[in-house]
Write a structure and sequence with these properties.
By secondary structure, the chain is α+β, with helices and mostly antiparallel strands. The chain has helices spanning 14-23, 38-42, 80-94, 129-133, 136-141, 143-150, 155-160, 163-168, 177-182, 281-287, 294-307, 318-340; strands at 7-9, 29-32, 54-57, 65-67, 100-103, 113-115, 121-124, 186-190, 195-199, 204-206, 209-210, 217-223, 230-237, 248-256, 263-271, 278-279. The protein folds into three domains: 7-43 and 98-103, Uridine Diphospho-n-acetylenolpyruvylglucosamine Reductase, domain 2; 54-94, no CATH class; 111-340, 2-Layer Sandwich (Uridine Diphospho-n-acetylenolpyruvylglucosamine Reductase, domain 3). α10 (281-287) packs antiparallel against α11 (294-307) and α11 crosses α12. It starts with 6 loop residues before the first strand and ends with a helix.
């Protein structure tokens, strides 16, 4: 992996990290948590996917030829050193690299899984995916989040990757992001001057874009206490079982008025079928107040399909994704209902 040059800063507190973000903002700065996404994003391509070109001219030594290099960058005294400098110039014209990375691995307050007296859950932003995967309390009460952790990357990636980093990247297929939307998670965001909270379903504005402002850092994710007779589930549909980005991800959280009774509330989150994870609001209109029987669940799954906005890409067509949203939502609602009734 070929990485650009950058300096690494290591704060000991959240306040210090926020100060560094503000101080070095004009030089380019990024937060380094587990690094499983960031370092891959920063790598320099060995062969640039896009480079400037000209249609050919008489300025080159060999005459009128087509060049993959802008004429202004042409060097007559080519050498290994000048070639490397030229490649770096080409790559830097394509990618904007930060001058500083702020490694937050020393900030202890960003780690840990805790519950309070009201039964709500707080997960520190630097908590690893493996820690979430292995947490008994999360698997019991916030099951969809544990299942999202199960399906993220490989054991090596889960050991390094953090929930804060996975959500902060704002990728619509992120395996802890989608369940966090369904589970009504709230992000705690800190700056030098203040702290604020943002609902996870309002966090991303586009792929890789969020509502975070300059100098802010995610410190934790909070989840409300699950009421009685509630359950959740998450499924990642992908071309492979591991180390794969999902074609469709569906997370469901449901609460019943009583076992076998009508639906009191439901949240269905869809991943990889829109520019951001989608909270399928149409499902609420179909299910709330009704018993989740065969017919109603099928209607709810179709409503979720209608809320999805998939596109064609190399992992699947929009039509395929749309059909899979309906199928997977149907299955996840059924599983969540069973869990709410204590049967699974």
């Amino acid at each position: 992996m070929i990485l650009p040059e950058f300096d690494v800063l290591v704060p000991n507190t959240v306040a210090e990290a926020c100060g560094m973000l503000s101080k070095y903002a004009d030089k380019g700065v990024r937060i380094l948590a587990g690094g499983t996404d960031l370092l891959v994003d920063l790598r320099r391509p060995i062969v640039p996917s896009e480079i400037s070109s000209c249609d050919g001219c008489a300025t080159h030594k060999t005459g009128n030829v087509r060049s993959t290099i802008d004429c202004g960058w042409w060097e007559s005294d080519s050498s290994p050193e000048s070639d490397r400098a030229l490649l770096k110039k080409v790559q830097d014209s394509i990618h904007q690299y930060p001058g500083y990375l702020i490694s937050i691995h020393r900030i202890k307050e960003l780690r840990g899984i805790t519950t309070n007296e009201k039964g709500s859950l707080r997960v520190g932003a630097m908590t690893t995916v493996t820690e979430i995967e292995r947490s008994d309390i999360i698997r019991e009460k916030w099951t969809a989040l544990a299942e999202g952790a199960d399906s993220l990357g490989s054991p090596l990636v889960r050991n390094r990757g953090t929930i804060g980093g996975n959500i902060a990247n704002a990728r619509p297929a992120a395996d802890t992001f989608i369940p966090s939307v369904a589970l009504d998670g709230v992000l705690v965001i800190q700056s030098e001057k203040a702290s604020r909270k943002v609902s996870v379903d309002k966090f991303a504005t586009a792929p890789g874009k969020t509502v975070m402002e300059e100098g802010e850092i995610i410190t934790a994710i909070e989840y409300p206490a699950p009421p009685e007779f509630s359950g959740s589930a998450y499924y990642k549909l992908a071309n492979r079982k591991a180390l794969e980005i999902c074609n469709v991800g569906v997370a469901v959280w449901i609460a019943l008025e009583k076992p076998g009774g009508p639906v009191a509330d439901i949240r269905v989150a869809l991943g990889a079928v829109g520019p951001t994870p989608i909270l399928a609001e149409s499902v609420k209109k179909v299910l709330i107040g009704k018993k989740p029987d065969e017919e109603i669940i099928k209607k709810a799954a179709k409503a979720a399909r209608d809320d999805a906005r998939p596109i064609d890409d190399h992992r699947g067509s929009a039509w395929y994704r749309s059909m899979m949203v309906e199928l997977v939502t149907d299955r996840m609602i059924r599983l969540a209902v069973k869990r709410a009734e204590g049967e699974a």
